[in-house]
């Protein structure tokens, strides 16, 4: 009888371990992104993987300042889009008080600074300092994205050394900014905007990045890394999701392709993520190393089955 009880106990423990990878409170993963196509794509890809692993997700479209406040207040769990150094001013207070934690760099080789159409660059606007000379042609306007995401443009206008007093930042959205870029290019009129890579804009339009923005965006045309961040204590609370986030890294070419599925094919972020994974399934080996499904089963076969691979 003792052997039977011992066996039953051991079997129950084994079953419990296989089906209790994380507490129920970890089942729903709350993410956010600011409406940038690169972050919409990577967030959608993360959702595709999490759903395949048996998790539920929620992804909100929020301004960067709201994302950080929500992480601090524990209203969000995950943000895959900390651009360093462009977002340093947003992150600084939360880094100082420890309410937002950085998990890993998920992208290197990115850049982010002012850009202009090639014909504007050839007309002599090659540096931030050149903007004031052609202020009338620009109608003293520079084009940004969502409100809350253009602080560095506002900082440049406020910097007396650039002579941009009276300039306006036109805020709309990434799509709105790019529509304005296309319209101005059609008219061959002057236009300055926030440009970055990875992004299909670099292939769709003949654009140039301006020098002279190191003070605001950092050196080498705002050379940047992108990191995954979480609310304080999240990785300890939900270590399986934490392991996935640690593993989940990308490269410029992969993101350019994925963003093309969003912008050119009209796919939703999650469908774009699924298509990108389907086109390069070998990445799953590294992404899912040390990861299980929510109920503790092997991750790789579950994800391959869920995604039809």
UniProtKB/TrEMBL annotation:
Q: Any keyword Transmembrane?
A: no
- What are the entry keywords? Signal
Q: Which Pfam families match?
A: OpuAC
| Cellular component annotations (GO), alphabetically ordered | ATP-binding cassette (ABC) transporter complex; periplasmic space
Q: Which InterPro entries does this UniProt record tie to the protein?
A: ABC_choline_sub-bd (IPR017783), ABC_Gly_betaine_transp_sub-bd (IPR007210)
Record SUPFAM superfamilies: Periplasmic binding protein-like II
Q: What processes in GO biological process is this protein linked to?
A: choline transport
Q: Which GO terms describe its molecular function?
A: choline binding; transmembrane transporter activity
Q: Give the signal sequence positions.
A: 1-20
Q: Which residues form a coiled coil?
A: none
**Residue span, ABC-type glycine betaine transport system substrate-binding domain:** 28-275
What protein name is recorded for this chain?
Choline ABC transporter substrate-binding protein
Q: Which organism is it from?
A: Shinella zoogloeoides
């Amino acid at each position: 009888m003792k052997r039977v009880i011992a066996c039953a106990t051991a079997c129950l423990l084994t079953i419990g371990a296989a089906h209790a990878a994380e507490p129920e409170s970890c089942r729903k993963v709350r993410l956010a992104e600011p409406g940038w196509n690169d972050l919409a794509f990577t967030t959608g890809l993360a959702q595709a993987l999490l759903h395949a692993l048996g998790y539920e997700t929620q992804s909100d479209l929020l301004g960067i300042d709201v994302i950080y406040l929500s992480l601090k207040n524990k209203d969000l769990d995950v943000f895959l889009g900390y651009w360093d150094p462009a977002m340093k001013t947003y992150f600084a207070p939360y880094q100082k008080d420890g309410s937002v934690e950085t998990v890993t760099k998920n992208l290197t080789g990115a850049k982010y600074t002012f850009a202009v159409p090639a014909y504007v660059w050839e007309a002599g606007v090659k540096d931030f300092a050149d903007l004031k000379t052609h202020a009338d042609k620009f109608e003293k306007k520079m084009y940004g994205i969502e409100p809350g995401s253009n602080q560095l443009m506002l900082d440049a206008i406020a910097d007396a050394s650039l002579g941009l007093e009276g300039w306006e930042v036109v805020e709309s959205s990434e799509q709105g900014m790019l529509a304005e870029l296309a319209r101005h290019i059609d008219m061959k009129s002057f236009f300055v905007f926030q440009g970055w890579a990875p992004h299909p804009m670099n292939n769709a339009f003949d654009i140039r990045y301006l020098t002279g923005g190191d003070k605001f965006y950092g050196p080498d045309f705002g050379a940047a890394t992108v990191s995954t961040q979480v609310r304080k204590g999240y990785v300890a609370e939900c270590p399986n999701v934490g392991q996935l986030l640690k593993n989940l890294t990308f490269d410029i070419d992969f993101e350019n392709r994925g963003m093309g599925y969003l912008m050119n094919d009209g796919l939703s972020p999650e469908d774009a993520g699924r298509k990108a994974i389907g086109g390069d399934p070998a990445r799953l080996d590294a992404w899912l190393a040390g990861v299980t499904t929510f109920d503790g089963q092997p991750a790789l076969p579950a994800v391959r089955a869920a995604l039809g691979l």
